[in-house]
Amino acid sequence: MALKDLFRKKNVQDILNQVELNNADGHGALGRHLGVRDLAAFGIAAIIGAGIFSTIGKASADGGPAVIFLFLFTALACSFAAFAYAEFASMVPVSGSAYTYSYVAFGELIAWIIGWALIMEYAIGNITVAISWSDYFTGLLDSGGIHLPQWVQMDYLTASNGFTEATALMQGGKTFENLDAGLQAAYTAWTTSPTLGAFHFVADLPALLIIIIITALVYRGMKESRNASNLMVVVKLCIILLVIAVGVFYVDTANWDPFAPNGAAGVLKGVSAVFFAYIGFDAISTTAEECKNPQRDLPRGMMWAIIICTVLYVIIALVLTGMVNYSELNVGDPLAFVFEKLDLKWMSGIIAVSAVIAMASVLLVFQMGQPRIWMSMSRDGLLPKRFSKVHPKFKTPSYATIVTGFVVAVPALFLNLTMVTDLCSIGTLFAFVLVCAGVLVLQNKPNIPRGKFKTPYVNAKFIMPIGLVLGVLLCVMYNKDATVDFLTNAKEFNSPNTIVTSLTKEQTTEVYNSLLARDVATGSQDLEHILSSYESEPAQYERLVAELPIADDLKYESGFQLFKHKIPMWIFLISLVLLSIWAFRKNLSLIPLLGLICCLYMMAQLSVWNWIYFFVWLLIGLLIYFGFSRKNSKLNLSRL
Predict the structure, then answer these.
(1) Membrane spanning segments where (predicted)?
(2) Are residues 305 and 290 in the same domain?
(3) Nearest residue to 34 (alpha-carbon basis) of 418, 292, 238
(4) By three-state DSSP, how is residue 432 classified?
């Protein structure tokens, strides 16, 4: 096959003609039931979930009240991407989201790559939400006096890793009672679970239950899914407004001082977690064929969803950080926590119920998007034909919906929440990057049918290069030490937790004795606690760690071991230079360009291991493409 055939493109007009043909004869046509209000509700259902009920706590603990700027930044980044999505959705109003858009802009190989990445986004996102729903549901059962064994409410990896870490910390002198609550639960789940030889049976059964229920609902039909989603959105919006109305009377403005206790670094520390709170608005674009007027309604639905959710996120963040000190919010259920702390337990119960509803609505939207991506890829011949089968009665992609249920349910029993959250984020951000780039690629091409919505044009020819130069100057002027350390790859000392959990039993004893001999360990046998007490004075902490009787690679990271973690940021910085050159030469549109840059920056904040896992996933996808999809592609068959 010629290289150019890998980048053969779909024609917009051919896509539109095929949709009209499907609608005319009813073959493969989906039911059209959605308006602007329904689309906005789906967006709110997808966005308001983990952000309000979970990740907002950790982000607030890192950034203080200034975390509101992180929500605004993330909303702005998503809005830039939403403009690109809306323009494509208006131009190509069919199911498929970024996959279909990339087929038009870049060609088949890139379309396959983004489609494969979207499978990761939706499948992994569903797993993440199912695990979070399970946590809230089991917490609700506990408050009602129903206590499930730990090994049926936790995934295998969390229990295994938690047991290992807890054992290392207790070996270092920490008592079980002083372990983090999550580590206590993981240790208990692992030690009390049934075993078969060396295998421990630990599986998240509530996560399996909710996936089965939601998959059945999505299979049943779009109208039923819409009605259920709208009902859940109304319930959780009422609860959130109640939280704001009650919480505002307990706000102490003294808790807002300092407003940004850890500076910009603290605010940006939670960028990935907060971004995960926003993903899902793009799932709206997968319902294009089920909209009554997609060219008008899809852009409006996306924008309204982002605006409403951002306003709610900012108000909730201000209320939470006003009710208690930001440093106390590093908990998994911050809303329930603050009301329980203020002895308003009736509100904690209401919040627990609403969290269960909110998570279910997020799962509904994600579980709805995945089969429609597969259906679009199957229609193009890139996946087996069965994936494009539409149920004759329910008018939903039936086979793809059932497969989605299995793909999500099985890993949800065993996978770790942090791992799947980051994988979902990188897959989503990659999709956003390609959609924004697609708008830039098509902006000056003639003979491309344009929809009713077009992203406002601002020429980035000079803005982008000037912005890059100003950014470099600001880094040198106001953050010189960190910039120099980054460029010179200066060694970084490990955290107390990392050091302690890396030690053998003999090393732990040796380190403790050395601290005792220097009168550092007086009054405590908890090695992590001893080291942590020096972290507030970086220079003193580094001197203390440097003198420990252990190997250097346990004390700090340097050389390539440190540089590898900076590779994502170097990719981002090199991309900025290339994008500046592209913008100057081609007069690129500023809004999609800013969307591309913001999403690349958030990708750079994810660890290098997430990039590696992501590229392994893409390599598996390429093997499938060259083994099956390339030969069976309808564009290929039409040329034979």
Answers:
(1) 39-60, 66-86, 198-219, 231-251, 263-281, 302-326, 346-366, 396-414, 420-442, 462-479, 567-583, 588-604, 610-628
(2) yes
(3) 292
(4) helix
